[in-house]
UniProtKB/TrEMBL annotation:
Keyword Membrane: yes
Membrane-traversing stretches: 38-61, 73-98, 118-141, 153-174, 186-206
Superkingdom of origin organism: Bacteria
Keywords: Membrane, Transmembrane, Transmembrane helix
Keyword Membrane: yes
Name under which the protein is recorded: DUF4386 domain-containing protein
Length: 217
């Protein structure tokens, strides 16, 4: 999922590094005119890969449910956060797609506004990710089973990911600098830790399922 999304977003749509929020409208419009077809293909791939996050998030919910011994506050919170996260990941892609659909037939300011909506939404949804990280951390710290679902170090990892993702919440405030949507604290560091979290979470969940099957078999 993350490989397809990254390839669609960064490689196909050519949106890495991000367009600067301080760029003038004419520059933004020219980018969409020059790259409109690639952006459309990139959006298509991103929409597909975002939907593929659903089963991954469902497994996380079920693992937390196992750690709680049934449906509880943590698993329900994780479920609601996951339910919000996937649409929040999909919807901004449509703004990007609209911006690239007829970029030469509208004003540069309108294309710039569509681009703004995309980036502010795309980066600003970190709140749902932070909630997911915190519920996973609590689940890791409170699981008292002989074979815990999540190791304690994974709980600390989630706390670090949540902390380092916080700057994404303020992208609506800054037009430039490290806290803007293309800044090191709002984009690059959260993006890096998210990738680390995705691969680590996959490994932790697979190991947990393997151990559970071995014990039940």
């Amino acid at each position: 999922m993350i490989i397809l999304y990254g390839a669609s977003f960064s490689g196909v749509a050519q949106l890495f590094p991000p367009l600067s929020p301080a760029a003038p409208a004419d520059e933004i419009a020219a980018f969409f005119v020059d790259h409109k077809l690639w952006i459309r293909f990139g959006v298509s791939g991103a929409l597909l890969s975002a939907a593929l996050a659903l089963p991954f998030l469902a497994v996380i919910v079920m693992r937390i449910k196992r750690a709680e011994g049934g449906w509880g506050m943590l698993s329900m919170t994780q479920l609601m956060a996951a339910t919000v996260f996937v649409p929040a990941l999909i919807f901004p892609q449509f703004f990007l797609g609209v911006a690239a659909f007829r970029p030469e037939g509208r004003s540069a300011e309108l294309t710039q506004a569509l681009n703004d909506v995309f980036w502010l939404w795309f980066i600003g949804i970190v709140g749902t990710i932070i909630v997911q990280n915190i519920t996973l951390a609590i689940a890791a710290f409170t699981d008292q089973a002989d074979t815990p679902t999540f190791p304690r170090w994974y709980g600390y990892l989630n706390l670090w990911v949540a902390t380092l993702s916080l700057p994404g919440c303020v992208v609506v405030v800054f037009n430039d600098g490290p806290l803007a949507w293309n800044g090191v604290f709002a984009f690059y560091i959260p993006g890096l830790v998210l990738v680390i979290w995705l691969f680590t979470t996959t490994a932790v969940i697979l190991k947990s399922i393997t151990v559970e099957r071995a014990l039940s078999g």
